[in-house]
Amino acid sequence: MIRHDDRVTSPSLPRAYGFAPARGAGAVVEDVDGNAFLDFNAAIAVCSTGHAHPRVVEAIKEQAEKLLHYSASDFFLPIYAETCSRLDDIAPMTGPTRSFLTNSGTEAVEAAIKLARHHSGRPYVLAFFGGFHGRSYGSLSLTASKSVYRAHFGPLLPGVVHAPFGDEDPDLDFIRNHLFKRLVKPDEIAAVVVEPIQGEGGYVIPPDGWLPKLRDLCSQHRILLVADEVQSGMGRTGKMWAVEHWGVEPDIVVAGKGLASGMPLGAMMARGKLMTWPMGAHGSTYGGNPVSCAAALATIDLIEKELIANTVDAGDQLIAGLRELASRQPLIDEVRGLGLMIGIEFGSDDVADAVEIASFRQGLLTLRCGEKTIRMSPPLVVSAAQVRSGLRIFDEACRQVAERGPEAFVRYIGEHEAGPDVPEGA
Ligand SMILES: Cc1ncc(COP(=O)(O)O)c(C=O)c1O
Does the residue 310 lie in any domain? Predict the structure, then answer.
């Protein structure tokens, strides 16, 4: 099967390891050979309500029987507006919001860049080193987590500048004293686009005052603050949006991944008064497809009413268990996380790679991110017993790598051995 895939699919796809899923339920997913895995990836923070949650599946079936598609760009699709209303209910800003729905995270980031430029009339956008915002040209121009994503695709979007994230510039000195003074005047910057917790860049949490300082800086210069919550949103961190941990209100929020439990849907939510672009300025044939919207409505209900509470409990349990493991396992340098968005940093990329592979071989799916970190982003339905099993397997994987050395866990994908530069998902 992998050999066949290897012949017909684009070789650019960043495959992590030889896992070929066939079906899933909750936090368990089965491969094509019938092996069951505990899924601490949730298909990269996408299957928020778990695999095939019955209420989401029911909503999808019901909508599919009624209407598979009609473009909300050209006509009035009731379920599109209903989804925008539900997003307005849960938006992390006071006052009314409006939303533009897309098929993916990257398209929602594109929409945010376009709206910010259109509304402000300013050309520049500021993003952060270590950030990941997608792979289409606009979002790729913001992405600065690994150079392989950008290599040989230039020139990228003009007018994008980058600054250090979080701990690397706790008081925003670089932006104030270098960027504003030497490169770009603040009144030429339309938007600052930031992941409240960096995802693909390593599950990096900024120090406590950092996002509020960024909010103040943006307000001072009338720069729009765009929170890219594609990975950190939809309850993943134990609050609906990660910015809520710091009481920060963005002007625009970008959502995707967990929004519709695996159906393709993204959203660019903005304060209503920013949506000054005229009819025809932006649209999409499929964005806000009714089946994806039905999945999103069921997902939002589940997360709001049931799963945030479980995320807090399961997240506390998983972080505590990993910290206990780190206290006796010298391979682990740091465990950091909020809710079920958890990074485990190792001493080197070799060791992190090896632990990921050793976990996979024993039935636990995890994924690398950053330079030497493994991320855990289980479905928000994960149970206490599943957390205990995941911890036991991860402990054993670390023990095996410590005992046999990282070279004993080579990553084979079909006939290829993945090179050290190969990124894994996003
Ligand atoms: C923070 C963030 N923004 C944007 C994206 C792009 O989303 P998509 O892959 O759906 O285009 C991703 C994930 O891939 C992401 O993690």
Answer: yes
